[in-house]
Amino acid sequence: MAATIRRRETYDDEDGSGFSGNYVGYYGSPKLRATFNADWVYRNFTTSLFVNFTGKTKWAYGPYDTDNTPANCTAAGVGMPENLCEGAASYTTVNLGLSWKPLKNLTVGLNVKNVLDKRPYYDPNGWEGYAHDQNLFGRQFALSASYKFW
Fold first, then answer.
1. Domains in the chain: boundaries
2. How many Å separate Cα 32 from the centre of its chain?
3. How many angstroms separate the Cα of 98 from the Cα of each of 1, 23, 138, 142?
4. What is the residue-averaged pLDDT of the chain?
5. 73 touches 82 (CB < 8 A)
6. How many Cα atoms within 13 Å fall on the side-chain side of residue 57?
7. For residue 108, which of 51, 44, 50, 49 has the smallest C-alpha distance?
8. What average pLDDT does range 129-145 have in this prediction?
9. Is 95 in contact with 55 (CB distance < 8 Å)?
10. HSE-up of residue 147 (Cα within 13 Å, Cβ side)
11. pLDDT 10s digits, 45-71
12. No. of helices (H) and no. of strands (E), the chain
């Protein structure tokens, strides 16, 4: 398991005047991101489970952004539905993998990304209304094969 709990994030101002305020919890800067991974190996099969979590954030870009507040219920200057006034919701996805090694140098795999078919929330700050760091396509399947020659 890996987790990042952020307490402080600052930026160096472009004009060289010093560091700006703390942006943790504001748009694009969640306080918590975590990944849990578990593998199970039995003979020549390996299964993997990944659970990815991204914490909630405010719609405002920083403490200076007084337009995109819960009281105004806006994000990127766009009115939001009441259930999204507080900010971008937390987001969790689950991925599964299965690999099989039928020969010494051959591995065949099947991966399912976003097993629960989680769809991204509406995000007016993002491209076409969706956050860039989320899976826009829902559940995805991938087959793989690799052979090592040495």
1. 2-147
2. 11
3. 19, 39, 19, 11
4. 88
5. yes
6. 26
7. 44
8. 82
9. no
10. 3
11. 999 999 999 999 999 988 888 899 899
12. 0, 10
